[in-house]
Amino acid sequence: MSNNNILYPLLFKPIYKERIWGGCKLKTYLGKDIPSDSIGESWEIADLPNDTNLIANGNLKGTCFKTAINQYKDAILGGKVVEKFGLNFPLLFKFLDAKDDLSIQLHPNDELAKKRHNSFGKTEMWYVMQADEDAEIIIGFKENCSSSQYLKHLENKTLPQILKRIKVKAGDVYFLETGTIHAIGKGIVIAEVQQTSDITYRVYDWDRVDAKGKSRELCRIAVELALDAINYNYVDAKRVYTSRPNQNNPIVSSNYFTTNFIPLTAELSIVKNSDCFRVYIVTQGLVNIQIENEIFSFQLGDTILIPASITNYVLKGQADLLEIYIEY
């Protein structure tokens, strides 16, 4: 059987992560079968050494994603992706449920991450799926800052005073380049697209205590490493986009990934090359993906990988979709 015949739109078994700030909205809002009421993250498509999803549908159901990549590398990833990244899936897709405020943190760029951790950096994009009234995020400084100003406020536990708070609503998008200090506030569900990396420097945690009443100690090394990883300049991370129905509306175009918004009310034919996979995140509604005479159905909360070898298909239904790929 050829790769084209065996491959199809892939769904994955989520990897759930308990977090002190997690809640239960991944179940109540997205319908995820979470194992507890403190799940902060659902890793939808991941390829890290200790976190690789299992395929959840079709002929390859139960197969480790890494095993499938090894077997069908060009057909799943695409020739250009294999050429650049080898057999490593270059992106990580997840949903986050912030019942409480996340710690204030940042991620190193590719150069620092490679040198210090033998990892990629972590450029990321947030799509706000749901937000409680007055929910906020933190992205960057209120105005240009210096390392000495930053350190003074960090030591005095007044860091939030110099950071920019932003009220958010469903549909808002923020593109966070590496080095941008940030935090997701309570009452928000986010779909996140990022480079494949789990390197995070946490610098402030609201003097929070754990379940035993003990202060959550931040890693001193991470705090120190953050000093030359931070972008101290003011940043505008919000991305404004159009919502023309049944079209690809550009949101983010970067060296790491491209993201489009598709408000689907009828159908949209996709014709692409085999250089790269595509991923669709269903943020509202129901969508059918037709490949020749076969139809695959998906719903809110699904994250779907279209293998690179599938170059012609039709999106049908009533849904809002995020479309993500690497442009070559």
UniProtKB/TrEMBL annotation:
Keywords: Isomerase, Metal-binding, Zinc
Molecular function terms from GO: isomerase activity
Domain Mannose-6-phosphate isomerase cupin: 252-325
Domain Phosphomannose isomerase type I catalytic residues, every copy: 13-119
Pfam families (alphabetical): MPI_cupin_dom, PMI_typeI_cat
Domain of life per record: Bacteria
Name the record gives this protein: Phosphohexomutase
